[in-house]
């Protein structure tokens, strides 16, 4: 497959070269059109004048004048200025075309932006809820595999962390904080084209946890970011309450592309990416490392090096020095992304078909690869009388991912710098006389995940009478995955003479089938200046999940590991079919007067099969209101205020993100038999009395824009209180179960401030748009009755965030023993759990992003900075004792010795001395294991050039960089994701093109 990548990249660059050579074909042959563009009598500077269907364009000068040589005699001119709607003018026989914009048109284009709110659409400036929007233009500037990477740093109140540098990994997304005490209970609801998408983890934790942190893969990995038109994120009660019990953690609405009006259009895009690991850890060299090791043995009173101290007892070359970062994860990864779409439309019919293929390799020495093929079909029809419409969207995806079963990044950190070479003189894996566990052998054990996904959506609307329409949304979601973790006997030292009987394969198959039917009535009515927008509807969703796990070992041959029937030992664990049913009735009633005063009422009654008979149904709702005060007479003629609105909302949403059937007394079969009879055993302890987790949301916001919308400002304050927490109550081991599902009377509060600023500093030949978002979240556990007597006493603290750590207080180095010391809070003469009294929050304090878009003629520049202020778990928490047979960061050179009594780290020890080991283990659980993890990152920069070539409408070339630069003081590999031993996000460079025919 390496040849494929070479050919692809060579082909891409060949196409680019050919296109550059074709630039002489840009000659213009038409007539010249001149004119002036004004607002009333004032010349407008920087208005783009463009010939439709081409990239032939110019800008008005300081006097509002322009001159353009046409490429076609039958041309149409497009006049674009951000403060006004687009104006189109047929040239016909004219050589002079003057355009005059009026005061009434000013800003109307921005005000009429329509946002998808799920069951309804709303003009951006008339919404009462908090809805953030990311468009296709912002997404396509970042060639990523998962669209969540493209919106990092772009949306206020939305924190996104990429958990792995490997393609196919997981993401942690939090919309206005962490509401639930359960990690899995904080997932937002994903809706793709009106269909509830798979949420939560899409992999088997037991198979993938060695390579993917937490064993997680995000469901949006199935989607192709290039096929997405927009993403709306619903945050407050007014926006999310219509989703009832599923909206507690926010809603992510994804709308894929559809056919657009105009002539037949074919678009082809191709890009090629190379990447490498960002690593901030600087490790000891051989000289420093061996000095540390010798000192450790001396400190432990060991004069003769033991036989397993290979690094200093002569078994390994003490003059050798290997950069394990370069050897194991220092290779260059690559990605290729090719996309072809066809768009056609008429007045009644729109059609779009798109096919994409994506491939990605890794930074590991062996050829691991992800392949993903996607397809999108969109069909829309509207009757000539506009009273009937029907649309269909189908998203298809197939992916094949192969990764090592264990991440080599842990070996990068731990291997001694004088460890033996990976290969011997014969080119085979080196085991150095049975003294070296070769990390490359672990690459022979691999993890595969093959997945298919289909998402079908049908939306039809019938106007029954004037103002009243019947709308029906039907969705079908299907996914299946086959995961394997293959561990052949060849991962072991061949001198052990292990055969295929030591090989084993773990396999897990899962199928998910879901459908939803959502009919609703929409009624819109205007009476003079009173406007009503109402809807009522029903939701029915059913999802079925079926899983099968197989463990196979003792194979006849390693060549038969893909044939599980060749294993003589097999254990099958069939997951019972799980049915989830969800039913709802909902309504939303909106009223506005003079398009100035707005009020919306939303209600929903949900029923979920995850609760017992007496608790199946829950009621949820919200009220939202807004006042556009800039339309008042005393401000209507303001020369400086373009728009002003105050809005607020309050409501209750819910959460049913728990396992199925936990209210039932369920049993499962086991492979073990007694007297040839298969028995049953309890699957879990059941509780029929737990009920809905509920989230009360309150928000007040102010939206402003100034000077013809050239400056925008938004300020929002929110408070969410989540109660009746659904958790698994830990149980003692004597019960035979680890936990039981129940409600805790605990309350978690999330409140914060979100600030958004936007500006258009330049609007002439150079157009510059800038936007800044800042979020200041605060999380705390408000109440928890009998916390001290519960099993959560050492986990949470009332009045503190739920992300706190209870730690030892480090007091420094004992000048006599040279070991770490800690404060004995209860003064009982020993350090134990009761002395963990220091509270450290490892959550985010504030975060945001700064985006800039600059356009000069056909050249575009997009820059995005992401910044996070946080405390994080650092390297210390997951480190080995300095002096053991593992390398260490250079910071650990500052270790205690008689010559360095003020050191930050205890004396070196091999770990064989109990007191030294205990002291260091306590140090790993002390306040020193949490430190500043803040960072500023150049998340994305994109430079593009767009021009016309013969026989095409346009060509865009772009160069993109992702994660190019990071400023941080974090002690660890990367500040974004701090779990040690896993590959952090990569630094990437992309070259690509987009052709429009």
UniProtKB/TrEMBL annotation:
The topology of this chain with respect to the membrane is: Multi-pass membrane protein
The UniProt record lists the TonB-dependent receptor-like beta-barrel domain at 409-964
Main location per the UniProt record: membrane
Tell me the InterPro entries matching this sequence.
Beta-barrel_TonB (IPR000531), Beta-barrel_TonB_sf (IPR036942), CarboxyPept-like_regulatory (IPR008969), Plug_dom (IPR012910), Plug_dom_sf (IPR037066), TonB-dep_OMP_SusC/RagA (IPR023996), TonB-dep_OMP_SusC/RagA_CS (IPR023997), TonB-dep_rcpt-like (IPR039426)
Kindly indicate where the leader peptide sits in this chain. Answer: 1-27
- Protein keywords: Cell outer membrane, Membrane, Signal, TonB box, Transmembrane, Transmembrane beta strand, Transport
Q: Where is it found, in Gene Ontology cellular component terms?
A: cell outer membrane
Establish whether keyword Transport is in the entry. yes
Occurrences of domain TonB-dependent receptor plug (ranges): 125-251
A UniProt-annotated Pfam family:
TonB_dep_Rec_b-barrel
Subcellular locations according to the entry: Cell outer membrane
Record PROSITE patterns: TONB_DEPENDENT_REC_3
Q: Which NCBIfam families match?
A: OMP_RagA_SusC, SusC_RagA_signa
Protein family per UniProt: Belongs to the TonB-dependent receptor family.
Query: What name does this protein carry?
Result: SusC/RagA family TonB-linked outer membrane protein
Q: Which organism is it from?
A: Empedobacter tilapiae
Taxonomy of the source species:
Bacteria, Pseudomonadati, Bacteroidota, Flavobacteriia, Flavobacteriales
